[in-house]
Amino acid sequence: MKQLFLLLAFSFCFLTSLAQEVNTYKLDKEIKVVSITLHRSAPHLYRSKVEKKLIGLSFFRDSKKGCYVKKIYTTDDMNRANSLTIGDEMNTEQFDTIVRMIKKIDIDKINYDFNIADGISYSLSFGDGAYTVNIGTNLADENERLPELENFLKLFDYTWNLMKE
Q1: Pairwise CA distance, residues 140 & 119, whole Å
Q2: What's this model's pTM, rounded to 2 decimal places?
Q3: Is the model's pLDDT at 106 over the cut of 60?
Q4: Which residues contact 120 (CB under 8 A, 6 or more apart)?
Q5: One-character DSSP codes across 53-69
């Protein structure tokens, strides 16, 4: 009986260790960033009554043609319709500055609190065409500034100020 118990305990430990490795994926790859997308939005209750509000930016870098940005705006606060401006050119140095700011983000500190389900939603995606990294978090208030998110929010502030009309 004791041998059977030891065999079952060993089998349970072995199978548990295998199950923990099933859902992991390691990517040890350097990505040359050619696209960056930032999105910031709030539920209807938190939105200001601005007719046209910037909610998203997409930056693209083409080695031959330069850099471009697409701006996404809300145009109707009630039905959340969006408008898009396509193909505005931008300085390649500005794109490189955004990439340098992304490198300063500590991804492990982004999702510090999973209890916030409403409020302001922030998402960042960047990649090289083959691989894409997605990062996101929610904050209770647009003016909330947490030390864990300092570099992440600085990136949003920089890009939003850069693209103001």
Answers
A1: 4
A2: 0.74
A3: yes
A4: 40, 41, 42, 46, 138, 139, 140, 141, 142, 144
A5: EEEEEEEEEETTTEEEE
Side-chain-facing half-sphere of 10: CA atoms under 13 Å: 6
Q: What is the helix (H) or strand (E) element at residue 152, kind and residue range?
A: helix 150-162
* Percent of the residues in the chain that have a pLDDT greater than 70, as a whole number: 61
Q: Say if residue 41 is exposed, middle or buried (CB neighbours under 10 Å; 0-12, 13-18, 19+).
A: middle
Determine the residue type at 38. L
Task: Determine the average pLDDT of the residues in 2-8.
Answer: 64
CA separation for the pair 120, 122 (Å, rounded): 7
- In one-letter notation, the amino acid at residue 20 is Q
Nearest of 91, 39, 36 to residue 58 by alpha carbon: 36
Q: How many CB atoms lie within 10 A of CB 72?
A: 18
